[in-house]
Amino acid sequence: MKSLHFSLAVLLATGTMLSAADTLADAFKNGKLQGELKAYYYDRDWSNGTTATGTAIKGDIINLGVKLDYETAPFYNFRVGFGFQSSNAPWVDDDGKIAYGTTPGPGAMDMWGSGAVLSQAYLAYDFTKLTSIKVGRQYIDMPLIGSAPSRLIVESFQGVSLVSKEFANTTIMAAYVDKFQGWTDGTGDIADFGSSMNGSKFDYAYAIAIINKSLTNTTLTAAYGAVDSTDMSGINDTSYKMIYVDALYQGKTSSLTYELAAQYGNVNYDSGLISDANFYGIKAGIGFSGLNLYAAYDKIADGNAWWGVAGSGTKPLIYTSTVVFAGGFDESTQYAFDINYLIKPIDLTLGARYVNVDYKGDSPIAGDKADITSVYAGVMFSGALKGLGATIAYEDENHDVNANDKKELWFRSSYRF
Fold it and tell me: Which of 150, 253, 336, 373 has the most CB atoms less than 10 A away?
């Protein structure tokens, strides 16, 4: 902590004054409040899916929630922020509680959790207009550390984050976190901050990422991170280090848009008892008059990889990700095809996706194969309904081994103000 205090003192002393409020009272009075009202309906049918969770589950749930975020105007370059979230499932039955709250396993324990949590409580400082630091509870959105927005409750972190855009066409991000707030606690309550994350107990995680757009139509991303963790027993070391890089080229002609992308990730475990892993993929897409298509291939080699070092929203998504469960990182080869159409002027998107997965080697379901089909739609309203939006997605995960089958329906609506 001494080095942190020293660093902050030096930076504060060399910062440029950007005060936007003359008094502390003005800073709070001129602050910004953002809110969101949410209504989600999820239906899960894993009635044959005994391998993934250890039990067959089938149920549905309706969640209602509120998300409020407030940040003061700058006062001598300082900003203070608070964020509040609530969740309630007033009509959930026992099947819904089991399916979305108490069943262990991938994707479960994610929706049944009533209550409220103070997800943000931070102090931020702007060194310049292009560089800022934030300390405390906060949402983070960067490669390898990020807050998943797919469930009603958004994940949050306790720690320090830094964002700088001082260099032309370049964004540098860094974060260190030592507490995590997930979706639910597995017993029917909303999650609070603690050391449990992604099925492990962690002491800390950190990451640094650089995003550069100096090359025409090209975005380059590189990230490095690490997590110090054990399994939930606290005995077996699950710590690992990770690197991730990708390159995206997006071009257009008078009538067409097109993109080419490549990605690579490597996960290196501290324990020799866990196999190191890497993944790589390519993607090509084309668009014409609102119609968009892409094809992708990914290979997860050797062991079982991860999408990041903290949180579930960190995913440098593998290009073959499905719509609902956003990609599996078990050892496998995967390919995907997606087609979607944007209908103007109502901003309605209709789409379908097919993903094929061949599980291998260190995967818990090695030898199995899956055909995963998804259909989805989304709309963002404008005019008198500006701020109102909704998405719907249905996914059918059909395995050669019937015990791994899954079906899931998601409907999400929200109003932002």
Answer: 336
